[in-house]
Every structure is written in structure tokens, then in C-alpha cells.
């Protein structure tokens, strides 16, 4: 996973938060979903949709294991700020590597 993949993951998560309100109703119709979980999701999406500005910070670790058994961990951080209606900024930290 590279920086572009992390950025894409963060953007997809952010997109999910912003547009998930339409899918909450369909979740409520499923018998396999806990109604308390649906209620909490509804509360969260209502809160998030009412915010004019919010930010998030992610910390991700990618583990690469080679056939030789050597493992390399890549630690990647990202910060995002959303200002509605049309501004998203992000900053990605340079990944660090740990060899084992």
C-alpha cells in the first residue's frame, strides 16, 4: 500500500461518512442488523451532516512479508480537514519503515 492507496482509503472513508445517511434506512429493514447499531449510525450521520467543518487523523500500518520471512512495516499518517460546502484538504506524512 502506497501513499496514493492510503489517500484513497481515507477519501473513501470520508465519502462513506458524508453519504451514508441514504443507506441507513435499508439497514434498518434487515433482520440481521442490530436495531441499536442502526440507531447509533443514524445519530452519527445526523451529527456529521450538520457540521460545517471537521477534521480527522488516521494512522495506518502496512505489513509486507516476503517469502524469506522478513517483514517490513510501513507506518503512514494522514490528516484531513473538511470545510463545507466545497473544501477538503489533506496532508500525508512520509511513511517510516521497520524491518524485522
Short description:
The chain has 100 residues and is α+β, with helices and mostly antiparallel strands. It has 3 helices and 4 strands, in the order αααββββ. The longest helix is centred in the first third of the chain and has 17 residues.
Structural notes for this entry:
- Strands 1, 2, 3 and 4 form a four-stranded antiparallel sheet that branches.
- Helix 2 (21-29) runs antiparallel to helix 3 (35-49).
- The longest helix is centred in the first third of the chain and has 17 residues, at 3-19.
- This protein starts with a helix and ends with a strand.
- It is flat, with a radius of gyration of 18 Å.
- By secondary structure, it is α+β, with helices and mostly antiparallel strands.
- It has one domain (3-99).
- It is 41% helix and 36% strand.
- The chain contains three helices and four strands.
Q: Radius of gyration from the CA trace?
A: 18 Å
Poorly predicted sequence stretches spanning 5 or more consecutive residues? none
Could you tell me how far the N terminus lies from the C terminus, measured between alpha carbons in angstroms? 18 Å
> How many helix segments?
3
What is the helix/strand order? HHHEEEE
Structurally, the number of domains stands at 1
Class from secondary-structure proportions: alpha+beta
Sum up the overall morphology in one term.
Answer: flat
> Mean pLDDT, nearest integer?
75
Strand content: 35-45%
Count of DSSP strands: 4
Amino acid at each position: 500500500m502506497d501513499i496514493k492507496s492510503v489517500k484513497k482509503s481515507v477519501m473513501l472513508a470520508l465519502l462513506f461518512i458524508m453519504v451514508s445517511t441514504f443507506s441507513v434506512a435499508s439497514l434498518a429493514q434487515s433482520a440481521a442488523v442490530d436495531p441499536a447499531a442502526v440507531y447509533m449510525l443514524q445519530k452519527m450521520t445526523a451529527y456529521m451532516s450538520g457540521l460545517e467543518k471537521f477534521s480527522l487523523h488516521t494512522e495506518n500500518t502496512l505489513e509486507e512479508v516476503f517469502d524469506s520471512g522478513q517483514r517490513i512495516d510501513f507506518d503512514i499518517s494522514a490528516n484531513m480537514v473538511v470545510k463545507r460546502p466545497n473544501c477538503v484538504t489533506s496532508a500525508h506524512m512520509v511513511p517510516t519503515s521497520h524491518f524485522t
